[in-house]
Fold each of these.
Amino acid sequence: MKTQAIIPSAGSGIRLKSKVLKPFVSIGGKPLIFYTLKAFEKSSKVESVILVVPQDKLTGFKKLVKSFKIKKVKEIVSGGKTRKDSVANGIACLDKDTKMVVVHDGARPAITPKLIDLSVETCKRYRAVIVAVPVKPTIKRVDPGSMEVEATLQRDKLWEAQTPQTFHRDILEKAHREIKDGNPTDDSYLIEQMGLKVKIIKGDYRNIKVTTPEDLIIARGLLCNTK
């Protein structure tokens, strides 16, 4: 089954507090997005990549992809106002014969080709698959007004969602077309809203999303020796 990846990288990255756009932040002398793209370059299950970026940075991303000889990036397209809009722009660029779609955050540079490929293989059977890890801390539900604890949640039932998230194309397209509410932070939420089951495969605690300066320190520790 032909599989393409959509990598949204159009966020502003305000919480990172960087003067440089997040995908271009240096890790070991290379831009953050390089590590993400390299993992997909090495994937045996993903045929090509659609990279979704800020409209005013299209030229910069094209130069980056050319400079690092990333051959699987087939399209570089403008993002939208929200993550959902950006993924939708990527969906619009899929090849006609593509059957499965992998959606992965550009800001998760420690993803491995092995995990990408496992996600794709699992999706052939389950149609909607996300990578996630069991939460480690004790989680409290808190009333935002009084800041008092409402409940202590059962940790053995809580998983932290990551990407990649892999879907049969028809399901993903339908979800983006029909589910209008809110600004979801991942695509599996849209699938869930259609009443469909989403399969979880265990991910990797190192597969962090770089959001804050502290995350960047961890990412550099994980990737600074990557060649």
Amino acid sequence: MRIVGGRWRGTKLPVPDINGLRPTSDRVRETLFNWLQPVLPGSRVLDLFAGSGALGLESVSRGAAQAVLVERDPSQAAGLRAAVARLQAGDQVQVVQDDAVRWLGGQGIAPPFDVVFLDPPFAAGLWQPALQALLPRLAADGWLYLESPPDQVPEPPAGWTLHRQLRTAQAHAALYRGPGQGRADTLATANPAP
């Protein structure tokens, strides 16, 4: 797996054989980051269930100011820390080894995230518990990416609107926008929802 764009374009990311680890395909990542490119510069990003870390690292590669990667598996979290060190990105990327839902619940007062990637192991069915814990951590006018099996589309938070979606044989990918009015919808004219 490689980072597909930005300053680290072409950088290989190791993908270990871990039960439930299913990295987002290059095709879906390329499309997703085309959708998000106008809002990434300067944003604060959260990659829950980080796995390979491709979504969070790609965000920083393309201009996000900060990314937090949350990964439960200790060996994979160590691998993510090694990748961050290799990229010399320790000042921008934080790797947290913890259960994603538990970590969200223990954050207290912290700046909200502008972009969140929610792509849990499909068999675990964690979309709704994660969304419930995540909502207080999301900027009101932020962006939320949900990836799920093609025949199982999670319900987005109340008030969040579908911006774009993509379905492949392996996954359904959807990008939602929060109901807040803090900034203009910079993606609306370029990428209207189908």
Amino acid sequence: MLIGIEQFTELDIIRAWFSLLFVLFSIIIGLRILIKYRAFKRKELITVGLTWIFLSSPWWPLPLTFILAFVFNSGLDPLVYRYLMSAFIPFVLICWIYSINAIVYSGKKRNLLYAYLITCIGYSAVYHALFFINPDWISVYSGGFQFNYTLFVYFIFIFTLLSAFITGFIFALESVRSQNITVRWKGRFFFLALLIFISGALMDTFSFGSIIIQTIARIVLTISSLFYYLGFFLPKKLEELLAKKDST
């Protein structure tokens, strides 16, 4: 698919840049969490890291297309573009539920994990069948660099966001109740990241093709990744400052 950089409007470029920032932050944070596995040997660190990396996957296509257009005067194949927009969501969901089960419930909620596993495998099987039979059953081209999801994909997005909010709230609540000041603040930052991310994701998902709304949504998502980072990696100086605030 030949795409020149001249085909990007100013808003497209801004949207692509903030998408790229969000994706890069997400990958860096995810990789840092994955690296922690080497030190702690806890499997849930792998799934937490993979969750945040692939959570950004719906926003991969636009910055990739922008980079390819800028460097090679080309772009992603439309089928690849559409596939990346929604294919990994079930994987993200099962990784996150596994992580919550391990961190919050010490692996005891196996029925919950199995229920989500069956749901995600079932959805993924139907998704791939529909995609290879007729991609328009997954998303429909609406001009420019826009593809609108069908109701089938909207379902998994809403289901994933609801699941993330409920389980993320439980996870944050456990952290906020901790006797450790640092853990409490990490829980607060994580919950803020969750709220901001869900707001941005909903704004982006239901933008109905509005590039302005999508641009704002990408900025919101980028902010959420910064709070998510603080939820797992609190800088020492900030940790000391927050500890003093809690002690006064």
Amino acid sequence: MGDVISLAHGSGGEASRKLVEEIVGKYLKNDIIDSLDDSAVLNLPAGRVAFTTDSYVVDPVFFPGGDIGSLAVNGTVNDLAMVGAVPAAITLGLILEEGLALADLHRILESVKRVSDEAGVIVAGGDTKVVERGSADRIFVNTSGVGTVPEGIDISSSNAKPGDVVILSGSIGDHGIAVLSKREGIDFETGIESDTAPLNGMVAAMLGVTPSIHAMRDPTRGGLATSLNEIAHKSGVGIVIDEADVPVKPEVMQACEMLGFDPFYVANEGKLVAFMPRAKADAVLQAIKSAAYGQDAAIIGEVTADNPRMVVLDTAVGGRRILSPLSGELLPRIC
């Protein structure tokens, strides 16, 4: 088969068969995908169906704490979890550039296998295409995901209400700074790793405390500030955030100060922000802290009827400023 992807791997012939069966199938083997039918037939539990899709073009494809494979699975699982869905299955579409090292493809598929197992989802189908050298950047990945929303769950960016408490599941800015450091060859004294992780287990623990979670988002591109603004705008409410309560790792803050970034706008891939009634907030916070990836969770603010569709930041030095959505592009190709 050689050591790199060739155009023959996309021809539909023997090389394509070996790519799918001997490499992709090595990591993603299950009864559904082994059938090699044109569509997967799934047995889903009763409930409303949630469906999502996303594409991943991160540069570089390997970065501290993850790679494009783990990023793609986690991103799709988390998008389903943010509406309270229980993820069931995903698809995996691979756009491979001629010349991609097969060792790199193996490494990426190992990550897909590992994180899909952790998240409890199956890869139920997929596709591979090969493009000529220079037509892509080694590998692009598309994933779609399907899950079911249990009865009584109604989570939407339009549902935040005055009086809600805002909880953040952990420190911000880790992913964007990790990707940038690898891309630009910057060695920080303390290693910074991406936070990419599946959050469906955390969400299940939260909903086990109460179904009364009004809104959730995973603050990826545009960071926490943009996600908060999206919820404020869609719900028609004001949001007040206490800067001192927002967890940021010292090494990430130092990197942001050195590079001129605001951590509120730097991407995350393993964090969520959730809105819920105050009476439930402490119990939900403890559930998050007890779950994987939630040990640094904190209550960071509240929803108000004042200043609708605006996010106001109470700064660490005692002032107030408007936390606007991201304008322009801060970090290109971080997912």
